[in-house]
Each structure stands twice: as structure tokens, then as C-alpha cells.
Amino acid sequence: MGFNNDQNKDLQDKQADLLDQTYTLGWMDGYSEGYDDAIDDSQNALNKLENENELLNEIIEKNII
């Protein structure tokens, strides 16, 4: 009977470890997706600012000339 209890405990420990690893991998996957989204958002914001800057420079040049 002690053997079955030890075996059950071992299986429960392995299951807990597997669940922990699954949670960690899921968290890492979500974190990396969020990081990628942040990079895309930053790049889009930079592109928008560069376009606005270019338009402002064109307006300034037209008003100077």
C-alpha cells in the first residue's frame, strides 16, 4: 500500500511540475506577444512623427521662400 501512495505522490509531483512549466511557457508566450506589439506601436508612432515632421518642414520651407 505504501508503494501505491509513493507512486501517486510521485505522479502528483510530476503533474504539478508540468502544470508549472505550462504556466511559465504560456506567460512567456504572452509576454513576447505583448513585447512585439509594443515594438510595432513604437514603430508606428515613430513613422507618424517622421511624417508630421516632414510636413512641417515643407510648410516652413514654403513660408520662407
SSE layout:
Blueprint: H1 2-64
The computed structural class is mainly alpha
Overall domain count: 1
Number of helices: 1
Low-pLDDT sequence parts: none
The proportion of residues in beta strands is under 5%
Coiled coil: 32-62
Keywords: Coiled coil, Plasmid
Kindly describe this structure.
- The termini are far apart.
- This protein is mainly alpha-helical.
- It has one helix at residues 2-64.
- The mean pLDDT is 88.
- The chain contains one helix and no strands.
Quick description:
This protein is 97% helix and 0% strand. It has one helix at residues 2-64.
Feature tags:
coiled coil; 1 helix; mainly alpha; 65 residues; plasmid
